[in-house]
Design goal:
alpha/beta, TIM Barrel, 9-stranded mixed sheet, 11 strands, binds iron/sulfur cluster
């Protein structure tokens, strides 16, 4: 059984990236999980033998409860939380400071070493905000991981990006590079690689609408939630979707996981 359980904390976002799998943006429905549900998922995941938690969105830090919820989740299992890294004002930095004492890593998107190219697919001023937030978080002792999502990247550009993340205080071991997956807005924009279930990492993923095959499952296209990778509408008790996912995995050939290096 895959070891991580993901939760979609929310679907709305302060920005609107061109390749967003969930068509997130400021005006979309929140589809939020309550902190109580997130905590119940974490507790039951631990009891069922899962070893890690992931929290994604939308922009997770639009949820005011997020700093405290991440700390509470991490009392159960180690957490990686995805964020676009654009909301870390002094006020929010003060609120997340205690995460340095918790088993929480923040995964921040940074795609390119040049501001203009990076911001093309993300948002104006994105590069400046992100490259300011990362050292602010690192200074406070918070683990930061950088995710680079690209169709392709030249060696020279990648070298400069890696030099940049090292300068910002993030080691190579905390840098992941992944392709754009052709779902959601990426599909509308004709971007990314086609992926079917066997190409995608299978990690039980809980949303307000049900449980999915993995974090690339509960995507949104033309305002409608994709259900091709829906496992169960029931999310709690967690044992129900966990058993259903296990049933699906048992029919899957060994070694077929994540063939496109999507993570
Ligand atoms: S990719 Fe992330 S940061 Fe960009 S719009 Fe989607 S949720 Fe927001």
């Amino acid at each position: 059984m895959p070891s991580r359980v993901w939760m979609y904390a929310n679907y709305h976002c302060n920005i609107q990236c061109t390749y967003c799998l969930t068509e997130s943006g400021p005006k979309v429905a929140q589809r939020a999980l309550s902190p109580e549900t997130m905590l119940a998922v974490a507790e039951q995941a631990r009891e069922l033998g899962f070893t890690d938690l992931g929290v994604t969105g939308g922009e997770t830090f639009l949820m005011p409860h997020m700093p405290d919820t991440l700390a509470a989740l991490s009392a159960n299992l180690p957490v990686v939380a995805l964020t676009n890294g654009t909301l870390f004002s002094r006020r929010l930095l003060a609120k997340v400071e205690h995460l340095a004492e918790c088993d929480v890593a923040l995964q921040i998107s940074l795609d390119r070493p040049d501001a203009d190219v990076n911001d093309e697919m993300r948002a104006p001023d994105n590069f400046r905000k992100v490259t300011q937030a990362i050292p602010d978080l690192v200074e406070r002792g918070i683990t930061v991981r950088i995710a680079t999502t690209v169709e392709s990247i030249e060696d020279n550009e990648l070298d400069r990006l890696c030099a940049l993340h090292r300068d910002l205080g993030v080691p190579d071991s905390e840098h992941i590079i992944r392709p754009i997956v052709r779902r959601g807005r990426a599909d509308t924009e004709d971007l990314g690689v086609e992926a079917v279930a066997s190409d995608l990492p299978s990690e039980l993923t809980i949303t307000d609408d049900g449980a999915f095959w993995g974090p690339f499952g509960p995507t949104v296209k033309d305002g409608v939630l994709d259900t091709d990778l829906l496992v169960t509408r029931t999310t709690l008790p967690l044992e129900t979707p966990a058993r259903a996912l296990l049933g699906l995995l048992e029919g899957r050939p060994e070694g077929a996981d994540s063939t496109l290096n999507i993570r």
